[in-house]
Amino acid sequence: MSLELKRAFDTANHNDGYRVLVDRLWPRGVSKEEARIDEWPKEVAPSDTLRKAFHAGDQGWGEFRRRYLGELKAHRERLRPLAERALGKRVTLVFAAKDERHNNAVVLAEYLAMLEPRLRAEKR
To answer: In the beta sheet, which residues pair with residue 4?
Structure first.
């Protein structure tokens, strides 16, 4: 699976492949032309309640990760085309968070990677 993660504030380039904004809100100060987003599936971003609790520090990384994985399971069919695309071509998950190791894009990439074995088996 060819998944990359990149901050929305970093320069987009042709090596990014298919660019997917994974946040519910558009990143402040980034124009649509600069971002070069191919897809923006807002419904698979963390719920407002979950996002706000994590950013306020009301829950730690482990709890955020666990709850967001639960939310992603409800969107399995919506995420399937994205996971299938990443099997053959590079997909870059674009996010606005400052913390590059603890954010929703990291969890989404983990979830998509979990779908990979099943998708590969179905293609055989």
So the answer is: 92
